[in-house]
Specification:
alpha/beta, 4-stranded parallel sheet, two-stranded antiparallel sheet, globular
């Protein structure tokens, strides 16, 4: 391609797809690949390779990601991921890649530069930490008051803890304009269950969003 006599190099993309082993893996893979294909179709470029990882995002040592990054360096390509949490949920991990000069794009945030991505990762990690801390503090207060929870109250408290983990995820997915069926698929892909240990469905997501309408 040329632009006013100058050669314009076509962007080259290497797809990286990650699913959790306990999740609905193949549905998750298909959904991510469709999103990555759509990004390339919308923004142009060449898809040259795909790497699929079946591993928790909490682990930094991921063989397929290492291979993908090596090829990016070798072929002067950009790593393309569907969502930022497919790369990592830890801002430190994302920052290390940036410091190493790794180029990557997020399909669901096509206009985000590296600074915006760093801020987004930091905010996500901070929100999850705050939720965890609030839950611990609430349980500590209950214990200090000498309250012995019966089975019904224990179940209610357990459900509350589970819900606090789900709220920020659904809030994020809504911000990405994902419908309720898509939200259910993502939660299942990540291995999240309802407080009763069941898989998510569109109906369950709808009821959950109604229950926490003031927070989501």
């Amino acid at each position: 391609n040329t632009n006013k006599g100058r050669i314009v190099k076509m962007a080259r993309y290497i797809f990286y797809v990650r699913v959790s082993k306990q999740g609905s893996q193949f549905n998750g893979i298909d959904a991510q690949l469709a999103g990555l294909d759509q990004f390339v179709a919308n923004h142009g470029g060449e898809h040259i390779a795909t790497y699929v990882e079946e591993m928790s995002g909490a682990k930094d040592n991921r063989p397929e990601l290492a291979k993908a990054l090596a090829q990016c360096k070798r072929d002067d390509a950009t790593l393309l991921i569907y969502r930022l949490d497919r790369l990592s949920r830890k801002v430190s991990f994302v920052a290390r890649l940036m410091d190493a000069g790794v180029r990557f794009k997020v399909a669901t945030m096509p206009d985000a530069d590296e600074f915006a991505i760093h801020i987004y990762a930091a905010l996500g990690q901070k929100e999850r930490a705050m939720i965890s801390q609030r839950t611990k503090e609430a349980l500590k207060v209950v214990k200090e008051r000498g309250i012995v929870l019966g089975r019904a109250k224990q179940n209610k408290e357990y459900a509350y803890q589970c819900d606090q983990k789900i709220i920020p995820l659904i809030k994020q997915y809504k911000a990405e304009s994902i419908d309720q069926t898509g939200i259910a698929n993502r939660l299942n892909d990540e291995g999240y269950k309802t407080s009763r240990g069941l898989a998510w469905s569109r109906v369950k997501v709808c009821k959950f969003m109604q229950k926490y309408a003031n927070l989501i």
